[in-house]
Amino acid sequence: MKDKEYKDLCDACDHVLLEDDSDSRMAISWLHILKWDPIWLENYNALFVKMDMNERKRIFLTLLRYSLISLIRIIKGIWVKKFYINKDLTGSESDFLLISHLVNKEFINKKNDFYYGEIPNNLHDLGLSSTIAMINHISIKPYLIPEEWQTGPIKRIVLSKSLSLINEVKIYYSQIIEALKLIRNKNVNELHKKVYREAAIQALSNSTANNLRLKMQISDLLRLVKPRFIMVTYEGHAWERLIFLEARKIDPKIKCIGYQHALIKMQHAIFTNLGENYDPDVIATSGVIDLKNLEKIKNLEKITKVNIGSSKKFIKPSLNGSNTKLQKKTCLVLADGDFKECCRILFFAVDLSRLNPDVHFIFRLHPVTNKNSLIKKNPLLGKLQSNINWSDSSLEDDLEFSDLALYRATNAIYLAPSYNTLPVFFGNKKSMNIDPLFDIADIRPNLFETNQFIDILKVTNSDKQNILIKKILKYCNNKYSNLNIKPLIHILLNS
User: The pTM is what?
Assistant: First the structure.
């Protein structure tokens, strides 16, 4: 997809979103184009396909699948009575309501929230209470949830993946009404016609239902917690917009904060102004670079922006000059959370391992990816070369022993230069837009084909590598700042 085609597509989707301010319209994830990314844009291939028998078959099968999923949800709702997995929500009133994510069972055993880290503790030190509501992305049993999540000073609530029968019926009904509204549109523009048609289909999707389900839960939670402030992880998703709207409906005095973790080139939805009801009052950034980039966006000029940094250990205080690198050259492969992207980089690394038997490869999965499920779908990954092993260590330990870090779109790469590990971007010129280090694309090495790996290996443990790493490290130190929540609190209490 060319830049102009991407822009036209974004404009068309934004037009449909802004035309109607209904919750069910805003809930259609498909209309919120997050970024220019070949994998992400595959969701829009239908717009560029002729209406023939194959396309009609696709539409029929898609609608059938969505209908069956909705039916299962409705039937399952017969046995669902609660909005939350946690049984007891008494005493959960807090100054802050933080919306986070439960994407891995291992997160349950972590002291701090994976996304907010020390922020709740820092708020507590300042005399501000907080409750964390976790969007449930996995199957989790109530008995696995630690008791301290409900009894501790910082309460954590796990949202249910299904609601009661009546609520599921309400959700499905609103989806059908929205689909009918979209399909009846008579827009003369050909691209817009196709966008309306596909949006009508996606109005019935499981992702739209999930967004509406989340809106219901957060609405109930806002009444229970009675927060003064609500903070969400902020990337431009449909559900983020719905939460901002719902907070303002319940209490116009609630301040809405979007916590942005990292910007990449040619993002869209996060830069789109959908109206004051759907936009955050404050965007908090994790570093100086992203703050400056956001300040340049004209659509966001009325939104207050502040850098609060991050408690994630992306940056060490200084280049450690570690002598713990293995004698055998080692390449750490940092897989993305997206399944297709994960498979792409891992299979490319498998090819590299065959061509370079003297190099040790470490495969490190994203926290959202289950290794067993991945191998089940890709059996070849269960029969790897002897010079490949799966990581069972921390990210810091993996980097400590690695000379190179092969990556595509993971933010974990920001930590690499602090461990004298050289970031190597795997992709092509068209996929540069997903690179977290796109601002310094002329500095860090690129790997497009397997035969280029030999030249990159020659750089390791050399003066050239040290020079490159120092330049990359300087950039990363500005990309993620040390956590300091006080500037945000000052803005919130004085606005």
Answer: 0.86
